[in-house]
Amino acid sequence: MRCVALDGTGGPDVLVPGTCSMPEPGHGDLLVRVRACGVCGHDLLARSGALAAGHGAVLGHEIAGEVVAAGSDVEVDLVGRRVALVQRIPCGRCDECAAGLTTLCRQGPGFYGEDVPGGYAEYVLASPRNVVPVPDTIPDAAAAILSCAVGTGWRALRRAGTAPGDVVLVTGAGGGVGVHAVELAKHLGATVVALTGTAAKEKRLLELGADAVLVSPDTRAVRDCVRDLGGRRGADVALELTGGPTFRTALRALGPRGRLVLIGNTEPGTLPLEPGLAILKELTVYGSAHADATDLADVVGLVASGAVMPVPARTWALEDASAAHAAVERREVTGRAVLVP
Ligand SMILES: [Zn+2]
Ligand SMILES: [Zn+2]
To answer: Which Pfam family name is an example for this entry (predicted)?
Structure first.
């Protein structure tokens, strides 16, 4: 089958089109023909060598496709169905899986692009535990980004107990997770302040429902904006999608009992958490991983009902993965870049 594999790590040109051996569905597996695969910031980190992926790895964990075959003991009849995939395949047997905490499972096949070959290819293996059927009203490119680019924000907003009337800060709002987090927070009845480093993304974020968009603001500008929008003593929730670059600003913009959710980690390293601030304001810091199948099913429902519009920005042919990476790296893409095999 056709695929794009890493020829070492480095710039976009290490993404080299070629061929890979076709995956064979074993017991419990589904064979999925990839119809679209999103290009995540995580893929850029993996390609550049910041993560575990190395020579020969096939990246891509934002996958939608069609189930074309199933292992002999797969009980649910999914062959022929269009599906969106959760990016990690859980084992279904460990204590975490038994407790419904499948994002914490580390005994299953694992994460696409790292533990198992990913979606920069014509076919991937999946499991009934990580696929959710998608109605025909949701196109392939949109379906591909439902789990990572939409479900991640959905899970984070729910982790933070986001409620109507909350003021929600979204950092890195112009990226794939960010644009959808803005939409989802509005859907939950929040007032949304979007932070972006790119002025060109301001208009689109306002169209998606942001109540205010701040371009590379300092802490004071964020606090003033939150106050003007009714957050008297600060924001209720901050979704931290970039990590290092905006952490201090997001933390300082929170009001009493504010909840900060760490999601993105674009510059891996340590963050300056000020204990005095956390103690006196009784702040809560959450980590929130990727969506699980329940989150993904929620998101499929939200999109099918029109409550949220996925924003697959542009599509590229699979063979042009390096061009897609380069465009994302230049921050030209508002929303998600998607590869189509
Ligand atoms: Zn992703
Ligand atoms: Zn498990």
So the answer is: ADH_N
Which runs of E-coded beta strand occur in 197-282? 212-215, 235-240, 254-262
Which residues lie closer than 8 Å to 138 by C-beta, 6 or more apart? Answer: 146, 300, 303, 304, 310
Please compute the mean of the pLDDT values over residues 104-123 and round it to a whole number. 96
Q: Is 278 helix (H, G, I), strand (E, B) or coil?
A: helix
Q: Rounded CA gap, 250 and 188, in Å?
A: 20
Indicate the CATH number for domain 2-145+310-340. Answer: 3.90.180.10
pLDDT of residue 175: 86
Sequence ranges of the chain with CATH classification 3.90.180.10 = 2-145+310-340, 152-287
Q: Quote the pLDDT of residue 219.
A: 93
CA of residue 223 to ligand 1 center, whole Å: 30
Place of tokens 């003033």: 224
User: What is the tens place of the pLDDT at every residue in 23-63?
Assistant: 999 999 999 999 999 999 889 999 999 887 788 999 999 99
| CA distance linking residue 180 with residue 192, whole number of Å | 12
Q: In angstroms, what is the span from residue 152 Cα to ligand 1's centroid? A: 9
Of the bound ligands, which one is closest to the alpha carbon of residue 177? 1
Tell me how far apart the 2 most distant CA atoms of the chain are, in Å: 60
**Which ligand sits nearest to residue 338's alpha carbon?**
1
Domain 152-287 in CATH 3.90.180.10: yes
Phi, psi (rounded to 5 degrees) for 338: -135, 135
- Of 321, 286, 295, 303, which Cα lies nearest the Cα of 103? 295
Spatial separation of the C-alpha atoms in residues 249 and 23, rounded to whole Å:
46
The alpha carbon of 106 and the centre of ligand 2 are apart by a number of angstroms equal to 6
Q: Chain-centre distance of CA 308, in angstroms?
A: 15
Neighbours of ion ligand 1 (CB under 5 A): 40, 42, 62, 148
3-state secondary structure of 160: coil
Q: Which backbone phi and psi does 132 adopt, to 5 degrees?
A: -130, 125
Question: What is the amino acid identity at position 250?
Answer: A
The radius of gyration of the chain from alpha carbons, rounded to an integer in Å, stands at 20
